[in-house]
């Protein structure tokens, strides 16, 4: 518990204690005949509507426990959006000023959420709204500037192993809700979620873990990055947290197909998600067809479609 506050039974002592314990649902109409069950963990139920709340609370808790993040010290990170919103939420509760470096390549809703929680935001221009490997290089340069000018604590989400602590709890929740998991799949951004969940699932049994990425930026499957529009994924590198033992194989999926699936999920399943979540579910549906009846494939809806309404995802 980060808040250090106690409360009444059934009442969370702090909004930070409301992170986790998210629901899981079974899909029906989009699952092909003869396929395994497809279960989706709904991380939009977290306080900021994102699985990144788990990572942010774990990273801040770890840094505070070690004395690296003293009370009132500024925090900084570069992010495609959800990490910034989650860090802004945690820092608002705990009284840490936050500087976020992001870009106009990411949804306006995410940028506005960071500001709503009180973060100082630096927006690095993209090239025609595309997420490209060089964009992250330019964003990182801004982080270095802020660290030097403000003695800020850089959370370093791509290397920070504290993230695995937060995502391991996600893995334990999955096992409690679906004790027999044949396949778990998820797209890779920092790699922390896939690695943290995989550590738990691999320790519990023979679960196959599959890393997903957009085919437009096939770093894991083809060794090259590229421009794409799947926020929170495919930064053009193999992230350090994603060690080879964390996943069994990887596959690339069509980005346009995922965007169409996002619209189908809303209209046919009542599941309102963004492109990265739809990519996760597209991978799960493909794998479910391979596993066949009687099996179980699990993936994660990392946030909600509410974060993507300003774009064109739900047009048409």
UniProtKB/TrEMBL annotation:
InterPro entries: Cys_Synth/Cystath_Beta-Synth, TrpB-like_PALP, TrpB-like_PALP_sf. Pfam families: PALP. Its cofactor is pyridoxal 5'-phosphate. Keywords: Pyridoxal phosphate. It comes from the Bacteria. Residues 16-301 form the Tryptophan synthase beta chain-like PALP domain. This is Cysteine synthase A.
């Amino acid at each position: 518990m980060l808040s250090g506050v106690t409360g009444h039974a059934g009442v969370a002592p702090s909004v930070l204690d409301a992170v986790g314990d998210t629901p899981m649902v079974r899909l029906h109409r989009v699952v092909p005949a003869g396929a395994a069950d497809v279960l989706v963990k709904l991380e939009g139920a977290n306080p900021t509507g994102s699985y990144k709340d788990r990572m942010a609370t774990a990273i801040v808790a770890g840094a505070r426990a070690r004395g690296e993040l003293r009370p009132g010290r500024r925090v900084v990170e570069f992010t495609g959006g959800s990490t910034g919103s989650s860090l802004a939420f945690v820092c608002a509760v705990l009284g840490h000023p936050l500087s976020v470096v992001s870009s106009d390549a990411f949804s306006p809703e995410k940028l506005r959420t960071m500001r709503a929680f009180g973060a100082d935001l630096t927006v690095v221009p993209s090239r025609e709204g595309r997420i490209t490997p060089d964009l992250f290089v330019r964003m990182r340069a801004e982080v270095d500037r802020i660290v030097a000018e403000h003695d800020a604590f850089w959370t370093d989400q791509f290397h920070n192993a504290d993230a695995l602590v937060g995502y391991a709890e996600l893995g334990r929740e999955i096992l409690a809700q679906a004790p027999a998991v044949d396949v778990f799949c998820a797209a890779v951004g920092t790699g922390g979620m896939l690695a943290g969940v995989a550590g738990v699932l691999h320790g519990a049994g023979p679960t196959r873990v599959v890393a997903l990425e957009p085919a437009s930026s096939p770093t894991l499957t083809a060794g090259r990055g590229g421009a794409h529009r799947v926020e929170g994924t495919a930064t053009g590198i193999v992230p350090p947290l994603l060690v080879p033992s964390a996943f069994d194989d990887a596959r690339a999926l069509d980005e346009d197909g995922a965007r169409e699936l996002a619209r189908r999920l809303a209209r046919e399943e009542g599941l309102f998600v963004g492109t990265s979540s739809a990519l996760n579910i597209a991978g799960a549906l493909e794998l479910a067809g391979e596993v066949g009846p009687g099996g179980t494939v699990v993936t994660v809806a990392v946030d909600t479609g509410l974060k993507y309404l300003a774009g064109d995802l739900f047009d048409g």
